[in-house]
Amino acid sequence: MSERLSVFKTYKLYVGGKFPRSESGRVYEVTDSKSNWLANAPLSSRKDARDAVVAARKAFGGWSNATAYNRGQILYRIAEMLEGRKDQFVREVSEAEGLSKSKAAVVVDAAIDRWVWYAGWTDKIAQLAGGANPVAGPFFNLSTPEPTGVVTVVAPQESSFLGLISVIAPVIATGNTAVVVASEKSPLPALSLGEVLATSDLPGGVVNILSGKTAEITPSLASHQDVNAIDLTGADTDLARDLEIAAADNLKRVYRPRPVDFTADPGTHRLTAFLETKTVWHPTGSLGASGSSY
Amino acid sequence: MPSTAHAFVDATASDGALRRFLHGLPGVDAVGLEARAAALGTRSIKTTSKAYAIDLAISMIDLTTLEGADTPGKVRALSAKAVHPDPTDRTTPTTAAVCVYPDMVATAKAALGGADVKVASVATAFPSGRAALPVKLADVRDAVAAGADEIDMVIDRGAFLAGRYLETYELITAVKAECGTARLKVIFETGELSTYDNIRRASWIGMMAGADFIKTSTGKVAVNATPANTLLMLEAVRDFRAQTGIQVGVKPAGGIRNTKEAIKFLVLVNETAGADWLDNHWFRFGASSLLNDLLMQRQKLSTGRYSGPDYVTVD
Fold it and tell me: Where does the record locate the signal sequence feature (chain B) (predicted)?
């Protein structure tokens, strides 16, 4: 029997529900933790970033208006798809992070559990971040959280899958859309995640994944007037400072990088970081001279 | 225009003569035409050339609102936008014109005040053109009396497709006579003419009848301005000037939504008709959403950061 020819996978970006190559036509070599070649990944340009923002903006209306219950179902569906492709992610994580197969499997399990955990939050975060406010007047006063908009997510550089999931899921769970800049050194799990998202009822454009040089792609996203927030988790100190300055121009919400242990309980701060509060004042009706009330 | 009529006095003497003339025009190589339009669309226009092209394109826009739901308020808002497309940057050129229905001409005229923005009015039972001649002419008279600087008329596609070329020709000459000093744009609705040969014939009928502009479409049908049909019309105005010395303008309308497409059209103009047409007296875009994209691109060039729809008006 003749030996099979190897079938190499072409890793591509995930933008607007499609899998384009970089507009620039460039790729870069991705290696494992021992510097062995793994694959070529697209080296995104700022025009790819621009296209991703356009796609994210286009998807925002539909995704933010979907019911929280529906978003939760879709996120859970993504977890189901991740479960089905667990072997692939275990291999990619073990190559990227130099973990043994069994340790990588623990990381992937934790990532899928994290995704399910965030899926459950979609229809509960409003009770946590909103509610009735006591006010000194005859009003029923109610606050409710709404998604911020298009969020640029600079994914963590080291934790290529658990960290990635931990930064994407909270952003989209609350109805934002995301432009994700994958780990520069280990982008393959992120690019494979795009393939999962494309096959799990998530509308195209809600998550857009770019690979390439973090310092090249992120400045135009930080200064982009149509991006509403930026999560700087994967930016080093110098880059984060520059990006924060660029982001100030249109008053983007900025989530500063901080040391984070992705294996620990994540808490809800990433969920609430990209929410805006809408408050409604409703007269209770006891303003009339007769003192009547509803 | 007497000189035009004179040049084609034989061709327009009878229906038969006009048919012979039009069918004597060279046939259009459809594959070649589309390939040429596509090839010219691959030019890369960058930096200072792009800045020039964006400003030129803004100055060529007939900012259009042609909806049943148009209100005086909307027309006033549109007029304000035509005068100051980007209120944050007063170096932005004004658009060429606003394009409205005849009953909104007076409103637009008043809103524009002394600004150097023309008022164009559609007329002749736009967009279908299905009305009797006296009704169409009354429509034109109304618009001109209200102060329209330009009249956008539609041809009777039914008559043209049935082969009644002379009727089409006479409709245009009759409308031209009602226009007075207003410039006449003749809309062929190329999406309804079926073939490129028909577009070439319609272009010649329009130019022979005295059109100041030939315009692709109303924006109300499925197929509007395409690079190929605009290229064909640009060839027609080029050939017409070579033959008669009379320059006629071109206006693609409908479906041109972003800067990249608009710049492709400008390349077509420059490469086909020539630089003489790179002026809003001779080339226009019939568009509404195109302006916002041009403004966002303009902001990108001047500030270096990508702009967004929050920074232009929604109309």
Answer: none
Give residue ranges of B with CB < 8 Å to any A CB.
Answer: 299, 304-311
Q: Which residues of A touch B311 (CB under 8 A)?
A: 225
Residue A143 falls within a domain, yes or no? yes
Measured between beta carbons, the chain B residues lying within 8 angstroms of A50 are 306
Per DSSP, A61 falls in state H
Q: What is the pTM of this model?
A: 0.89
Structure tokens at A24: 């620039």
- Do the Cβ atoms of A225 and B304 come within 8 Å? no
CA A270 to CA A229: how far, in whole Å? 12
Q: So where are chain B's domains?
A: 2-311
- Listed in sequence order, the residues at least 6 apart from A161 whose beta carbon sits closer than 8 Å to its beta carbon are A89, A92, A93, A96, A107, A108, A111, A189, A190, A193
Residue B168 sits at the vertex; the CA angle it makes with B244 and B192, to the nearest 5 degrees, is: 105
CA distance A20 to chain B (A): 20
Name beta bridge partners: B152.
B122, B185
The number of folded domains in chain A is 1
**Looking at residue A33, which CATH number applies to its domain?**
3.40.605.10
Model pLDDT, residue A286: 59
Q: Which fold has domain B2-311?
A: TIM Barrel (3.20.20)
Contacts of A225 in chain B (CB under 8 A): 299, 305-308, 310-311
pLDDT in tens, B185-214: 999 999 999 999 999 999 999 999 999 999
Contact B308 A224 (CB under 8 A): yes
Q: Which of B299, B306, B311 sits opposite A50 (nearest CB)?
A: B306
Alpha helix (H) ranges present in B253-303?
A: 259-272, 289-303
Q: Is residue A91 part of a domain?
A: yes
* Each residue's pLDDT tens digit, B216-235: 999 999 999 999 999 999 99
Instruction: Please name the amino acid found at residue B53.
Output: A
Asked if the model's pLDDT at residue B21 lies above 90, the reply is yes
For B114-142, give the DSSP string: TSS-EEEEEESSTTTT-S-HHHHHHHHHH
- The residue in chain B having the minimum alpha-carbon distance to the alpha carbon of residue A227 is B308
What's the pLDDT score for residue B315?
73
Q: Are A252 and A229 contacting, i.e. CB atoms less than 8 angstroms apart?
A: yes
Q: What count of other Cβ atoms lies within 10 Å of the Cβ of residue A36?
A: 8
**Does residue A154 register a pLDDT over 60?**
yes
- Does residue A12 belong to any structural domain of this protein? no
Residues in A closer than 8 angstroms to B308, CB to CB, are 53, 57, 224-227
Residues 6+ apart with CB under 8 A from A240: A232, A256, A257
- In a domain, residue A6? The reply is no
Rounded to an integer, the average pLDDT of B256-284 is 96
Structural domain boundaries, residue A185: 27-283
Size of interface A-B (CB pairs under 8 A): 28
| Closest chain A residue to B310, measured at CA | A226
Read off the pLDDT of each residue in B80-88 and give the average, rounded to a whole number: 95
DSSP lists the bridge partners of residue B251 as B215
Nearest CA in chain B to A54: B308
Distance to chain B for A225, nearest Cα, Å: 5
Active site residues of B: 152, 215, 251
